[in-house]
Design goal:
Elements (H helix, E strand, L loop, with lengths): L1 E4 L5 H11 L32 E7 L2 E9 L17 E6 L8 H13 L5 E7 L4 H7 L3 E2 L5 E2 L5 E8 L1
Antiparallel strand pairs: 1-2, 2-3, 3-4, 5-8, 6-8, 7-8
The chain binds coenzyme A (COA).
Length: 164
């Protein structure tokens, strides 16, 4: 397994991992390219490598299979797990063939280690029924009170925050 910092050249991979993270296949979207025009989704990756962006890429035998990254948003165009303009929101996706291998945990750990040098906290949005919620709790994320809301897929999402 390898984990390395994400670079601007990794934008295509991040689109692919956003496709995984947003359950786009299940929602009938056919390719990561379709995400560019989806309101509130494209801005997680568009123009990757901007000031404040931080990410990691990982996989096996030199083949990238996952990424975790974070980015600051603003109140005019907030992301799903937006808390405030100083708290970046994290996104993570691992390709189906890489799941359950420890890669997601390794990506989260590496990204959070890097983030604590720059930020006081990191937020994310997750569906209540997603098993990844347990992973986030293990890493210290806690639910933001009053943040539960219906998501476009028809279930309930919650915002979580990790304060360093
Ligand atoms: C969530 C995800 C990034 C974790 O990556 P991973 O490589 O599978 O992670 P690990 O092997 O380190 O396992 C960590 C946790 O991930 C979750 N997980 C593991 N396999 C999974 C799978 N096939 N599907 C969904 N979640 C899975 C579990 O919560 C696991 O913890 P547990 O063993 O205590 O239940 C990855 O499974 C994934 O991309 N899932 C679909 C997209 C998604 O849910 N993204 C997060 C949106 S908030």
């Amino acid at each position: 397994m390898f984990v390395r910092p994400a670079e601007p050249a990794d934008e295509k991979l991040l689109w692919a991992m956003l496709y995984e993270a947003s359950y786009s296949r299940e929602q009938g979207r056919h390719s990561p390219d379709e995400l560019r025009d989806v309101p509130h989704l494209g801005h997680y990756v568009e123009g990757w490598g901007a000031a404040g962006d931080l990410g990691v890429v990982g996989g096996f035998d030199g083949v990238p299979l996952g990424a975790a990254w974070l980015r600051l948003f603003d109140p005019v165009d907030p992301a799903y797990g937006y808390i405030d303009a100083d708290t970046p929101e994290l996104a993570i996706g691992v390709a189906p063939e890489g799941r359950g291998t420890g890669l997601g945990t390794a990506l989260m750990t590496a990204l959070l280690d890097a983030a604590r040098d720059t930020y006081d906290a990191v937020s994310l949005s997750v569906r209540l029924e997603n098993p990844a919620l347990r992973l986030y709790e293990r890493l210290g994320f806690v639910e933001v009170e009053g943040s539960r809301k219906a998501n476009p897929a028809g279930s309930v999402s919650v915002t979580m925050v990790l304060r360093f």
